[in-house]
What does this fold into?
Amino acid sequence: MKKELEAGISHHEHKKVADQDTATNYGSGTLEVLATPAMIALMENTALKTVSPYLSEGHDTVGFELNIRHLQPTPVGKTVECEALLTEVAEKKLTFDVEVRQGKEVVGKGTHIRYIINKEKFMSNL
It folds into this structure.
């Protein structure tokens, strides 16, 4: 790894909810609001971007576990902000607190675990 991964690092991403992000589009519901799978993808991507600068060449992270609650609907056109906070590093296991907000309202939150992998070795095991 390039830099030492330590608990406490975080990253923020912003996303304007578009038609392709809706429950209707994902098939996870029938409403034109931010789909839970789209929210989860934003959380995973934000966690990935939190640690990517710290990984050695040829390494990446893969999602392993999610414990997420989707608390509030977000309509198309509104912007959400996601924060991923690395809370624990246990060898290759990385644990994050993730939260999505629309302004002051918490849209979703939970925990996410990712593992550091060697990309070549990972793909050769498929």
Residues 36-51 form the longest helix (16 residues). The mean pLDDT is 96. Residues 63 and 114 are 4 Å apart (CA to CA).
